[in-house]
Every structure is written in structure tokens, then in C-alpha cells.
């Protein structure tokens, strides 16, 4: 600590004693370096890829570690949009690679236009093999033995997948059996929710089941947006013995706090406690927004030659976020408050965003009555009619409901909308940390 302070004092002494032009240049260079550092620490547009900058999710990571060391076991990682599924897939790859050197790990993002063949061709193109002529023949590959160059060479394993023939799950098992029988492998399929073809999903189910029964140590990890695994995989009941389900809920306040504090410590920047509380609250358990608010706020702090993030920096971050919000989110919100002359729907949505929710992020008409009274001093007997309207297409279907008519529970259809509405409330000067 003492050495750090000495270095800082020496740095500022150097700035003071240098000629003005050189001093200004040093300040600019130092500022640019710090802003670049901010972009590597708080990454709203890119998933986290390094373990030292990863925060939270310890329970899920322990389950992943356990699965990676268990032969014949596969996993599905699922949850809402924006909860950090790709980041945890990246960290799983890091964890797997740290096990030992004789392993192979691949990761691809799935595309809705792909076939079972193309998914596996892209996957196995990341593994290089050197097969004998006999091995190539075993997987149905014709080799010209008259050409010495063709006898043995290192090629991607995906080269042995033809785009003409329709592969089965058994074909993939045969290919892995010959191509990398001894290697421990982890195959990560991110954005698996984009795969809509039921036949492809059935093949993955068959593949996982039969790989778990084989002597080969291969693990499949499917990652995607879903409320339950039935949305991602077919006939999953047959996989109960060999499939670990890892749900990523929204992050807890402690986990969001860890993201903020870990990043600030790395940058040697501090933050006003009120700003920190607002960022944690507005993030709604979605790490993407934590990174976004922290990135925008800390950059403004540095640009203004300060090292404490204050409320002005936070307000600037809100304005930037609202300006750059996805247009589809704006359209849904605008549709929800259309022809809202008395601000009933606008206020009601703010009340929905700020109300206390249950473990499923749901709320009731009764809890909204309390919220509307507390925030807007509005004491209607019931808001059920308006809440039902917000579930309809003409109001953008911004909410969804479940249960019976007298016991309806409501929640936001897209969790990002809740954050957007909270930002709109902050813009109006409403205290979003009020509970």
C-alpha cells in the first residue's frame, strides 16, 4: 500500500514539474490507458472470458466443475436473456482447460438455419487429428493411397463430415471413437435455443444418452434461453441419469455488488455509496446492465479527471443507456402507453417495476395497489383491468400472467423491459430504490 502511494506521489510530482505541454500529454495518455482498462473490466457488449474478472455464480460453477470431472455426464445451462449464460460458458471452457493438457474443448454459437451436420462440422473443425488410411476407411472416407501426401496428415476432424450425407447421432459417436478416442472432450453449444428443428434436438438427446453409455469421456454442454429444459431438448426424461440441469437465475444483490466492487478495485476507482446502490437496484439481477452502468459512469469520471463516481456520472450513464436502448424495447413500451392521457399505464408500469416480487419475479393486483399508493398517492380499489390490458397485444403484451382469474400473478415478459422502465422512472426523478 505504501509503495503504491509513493508511486502515485512521484507521478503527480512529475506532472507538476514537467513543462505544460508534456504534462498535458502525460495526462491524456494516462486517461486513455484507464479508459481502455475500463473497457476490459466492464464489458456490456461482450461476455466475460477471464476467470479473474468473473464474479458471482459460485453455486453454478461448483455444479459445472463437478459435471466436468464426472465421466458420462452432460449439462444444460439455461435461464432468462441477459443473465450471463455465455459468460459462464466461457468460464466453463477456462475451467475445463485447466484440468490437464490431454483435453479438447470447443465452443460454437448455434444458428437457426443450421443442420445437425453443419453444427458438428463447425464443432469438430476445432479439433485437429492425424488418422491412418485404415482409420479413415473405417469412417467411410475414400483415400487415394497412390499419393504419399494423402497417407497421413493433420486435418480438422470436421473434414470427415460430408455436407451431402445426413448424419445420425451414431455417426458422430463413430467419428469421435476413431478421431479422438483417448481425449477428454467438452463440446459447448451456445445459443442452443435458436435451434428450432425438433429432429436435431432428438439427435442431441440420443447422442448424449449413448455417449454416457460409452467408454469415451465426452461431455456436451447446451446453453440457451429457456424457462425450463423442455424448451431446449426433446425427450429429456431419458437423460435423467446423465444430464445435469443448471439454471441461471437473475443474480442476487450480493453477486451484482461483487461485479461492481471487483471492477472498481481493479481500476483503483471508488464510487459514491448511493450510486452503487442505484446501479445494483437498476441492474435487476442482469449482469449486462451492471457492466453497462459501471462502464458509462466510470468513463465519465475519468474523462473529468476524478477517481470517485458521483451522481452526475450516474445520471450521464442513464441518459446514454436510454439513448442506446434496443428499438424493439422502445416500441413495446410506446405501444403499452399509447393514448395514455392520464398517465395511468405509464405510472402503472413504474409501479410494476418497483413493486416487491416473489421468487418467480411475479406480483399481484394487491401488491400493485400498495405500490401505486406509495409512489403516486393513487388509491384505486383495483388495477386488475389495466394489468390485464398490459397482457394483450394492443398494449404490447408487456406483461404476462399465470394462475386463475382471482389469483392472477403478473410478471414482465422481458426482464430488460423492467430495467428500461426503472430508467424512465429515474429520468422522472422517482426514487427507484424505494421498496
Taking pLDDT < 50 over at least 5 consecutive residues as the criterion, the unreliable ranges are: 142-146
Note the main sheet. 5 strands, parallel
Distance between the termini: 39 Å
Strand numbers in spatial order across the main sheet: 2-5-6-1-7
Strand content: 5-15%
Cα Rg: 27 Å
The overall average pLDDT, rounded, is 85
Q: How helical, in percent, are the residues?
A: 40-55%
* H and E string: HHHEHEHEHEHEHEEHEHHEHHHHHEEH
Number of strands: 11
Helical run tally: 17
User: What structural class do the secondary elements suggest?
Assistant: alpha/beta
| Form type | globular
Task: Describe this structure as you would to a colleague.
By secondary structure, the protein is α/β, with parallel strands linked by helices. 49% of the residues lie in helices and 12% in strands. The chain has 17 helices and eleven strands. The protein has helices at residues 2-17, 20-41, 58-68, 85-97, 116-124, 133-138, 169-179, 198-213, 253-267, 273-283, 287-303, 311-323, 327-336, 344-354, 365-376, 384-389, 415-427, and strands spanning 74-79, 103-109, 128-130, 154-156, 184-190, 218-225, 243-248, 270-271, 308-309, 399-402, 409-412. The strands form four sheets. It has a five-stranded parallel β-sheet, sandwiched between helices. The protein has a two-stranded antiparallel sheet with strand order 3-4. The radius of gyration is 27 Å and the shape is globular. Residues 142-146 have low confidence and may be disordered.
Amino acid at each position: 500500500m505504501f509503495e503504491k502511494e509513493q508511486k502515485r506521489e512521484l507521478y503527480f510530482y512529475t506532472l507538476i514539474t514537467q513543462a505544460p505541454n508534456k504534462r498535458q500529454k502525460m495526462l491524456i495518455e494516462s486517461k486513455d490507458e484507464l479508459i481502455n482498462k475500463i473497457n476490459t473490466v466492464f464489458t456490456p457488449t461482450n461476455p466475460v472470458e477471464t476467470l479473474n474478472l468473473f464474479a458471482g455464480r459460485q453455486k453454478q460453477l461448483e455444479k459445472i466443475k463437478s459435471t466436468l470431472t464426472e465421466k458420462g455426464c452432460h449439462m444444460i445451462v439455461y435461464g432468462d436473456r441477459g443473465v450471463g449464460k455465455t459468460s459462464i460458458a466461457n468460464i466453463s471452457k477456462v475451467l475445463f482447460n485447466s484440468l490437464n493438457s490431454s483435453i479438447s474443448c470447443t465452443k460454437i454459437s448455434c444458428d437457426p438455419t443450421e443442420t445437425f451436420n453443419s453444427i458438428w462440422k463447425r464443432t469438430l473443425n476445432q479439433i485437429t487429428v492425424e488418422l491412418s488410411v485404415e482409420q479413415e476407411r473405417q469412417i467411410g472416407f475414400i483415400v487415394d493411397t497412390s499419393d504419399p501426401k494423402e497417407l497421413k496428415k493433420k486435418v480438422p476432424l470436421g473434414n470427415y463430415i460430408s455436407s451431402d450425407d445426413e448424419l445420425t447421432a451414431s455417426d458422430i459417436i463413430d467419428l469421435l471413437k476413431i478421431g479422438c478416442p483417448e481425449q477428454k472432450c467438452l463440446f459447448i453449444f451456445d445459443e442452443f435455443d435458436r435451434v428450432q428443428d425438433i429432429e436435431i434436438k432428438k439427435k442431441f438427446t440420443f447422442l448424449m444418452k449413448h455417449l454416457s453409455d460409452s467408454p469415451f469421456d465426452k461431455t456436451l454442454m447446451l446453453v440457451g434461453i429457456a424457462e425450463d429444459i423442455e424448451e431446449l431438448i426433446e425427450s429429456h426424461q431419458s437423460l435423467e441419469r446423465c444430464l445435469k440441469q443448471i439454471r441461471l437465475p437473475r443474480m442476487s444483490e450480493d453477486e451484482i455488488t461483487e461485479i461492481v466492487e471487483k471492477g472498481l478495485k481493479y481500476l483503483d476507482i471508488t464510487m459514491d455509496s448511493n450510486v452503487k446502490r442505484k446501479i445494483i437496484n437498476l441492474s435487476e439481477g442482469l449482469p449486462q446492465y451492471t457492466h453497462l452502468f459501471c462502464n458509462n459512469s466510470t468513463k465519465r469520471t475519468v474523462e473529468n479527471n476524478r477517481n470517485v463516481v458521483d451522481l452526475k456520472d450516474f445520471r450521464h450513464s442513464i441518459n446514454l443507456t436510454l439513448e442506446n436502448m434496443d428499438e424493439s424495447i422502445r416500441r413495446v413500451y410506446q405501444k403499452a402507453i399509447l393514448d395514455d392521457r392520464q398517465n395511468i399505464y405509464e405510472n402503472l408500469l413504474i409501479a410494476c417495476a418497483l413493486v416487491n416480487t416473489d421468487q418467480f419475479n411475479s406480483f399481484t393486483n394487491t401488491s400493485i395497489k400498495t405500490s401505486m399508493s406509495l409512489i403516486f398517492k393513487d388509491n384505486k380499489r383495483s388495477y386488475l383491468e389495466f394489468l390485464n390490458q398490459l397482457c394483450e397485444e394492443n398494449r404490447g403484451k408487456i406483461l404476462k400472467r399465470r394462475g386463475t382469474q382471482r389469483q392472477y400473478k403478473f410478471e414482465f415478459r422481458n426482464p430488460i423491459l423492467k430495467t428500461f422502465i426503472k430508467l424512465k422512472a429515474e429520468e422522472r426523478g422517482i426514487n427507484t430504490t424505494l421498496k
